[in-house]
Amino acid sequence: MIEHDRTGPLDLLTWCFSRIAMWAPFFIVLIILYEVIMRYFFAAATLWVNEMSLWIAGGIYLSAGLYAMQQRSHIRIFIIYDVVPLWMRRIFDVLSTICVCVFGMAVIYGGFGEANAKFWRWEAFGTAFDPPLPATIKPLILTMMLFLSLQVVSNLIRDWPSVAWVRKTFDILVTTFIVGLALAALYTLYIVPPEGNAVPLKWQIGIGIFLLGSIAIVLFGLVRDFNRTPKTWSDRDELEDEVAALKKDNIPDEILTGNPPKPEE
Prior knowledge:
Layout: H1 9-41, H2 49-70, H3 86-120, H4 133-159, H5 164-191, H6 201-225, H7 235-248, H8 253-256
């Protein structure tokens, strides 16, 4: 698999999320292996492995959709899309983008109150290990829906691609929005937390580091790719990239074209 180019602040932030999520399954395997060893070899089963694996898997599931959107690898039905002219494809792309954004905003609007309440009272799972799954997964769902909506707009702007001023304006606006949202969250978390705030200090520090890191990533992405023109995306472009990568490994053209070379006598 050859990854799609990451251009702009939003793509870079999505890519960083995905890299964390890609290592998470390995961590799940390690802790389950530890549980098996402790349970069957030492008769000392753990209380935390099962809930921890659920906790991490939930984060992987949510972030995987965002990465799939950035990579354009989500499921699409092309039975009509491929037979219509270019102008109609653009209409379809705009309509699908609107549908994703409307769905994302509806989920955020409907779930914000519950997620906000669960986070500030630091609601736990209610088991012996008692991890704060509701307090973390609920806000994470809304966060990923927000970034998914932004990502689909970014894809639409870059894939055609649009004129430079439209792309640059979007990058500036999305960077300003993310930075402003992160600063507002930091202000609420540290300066004016609501009454009844039960978020542990170590979690406040971790969330603060995450927010500051997000600000640094989007600012770096804006500066790095501000004058970079993205390549028009298509299935053919991806195939050409794969062939070019194989040629770098000195694989004969006969194999790339599906005609293997004849064995030497």
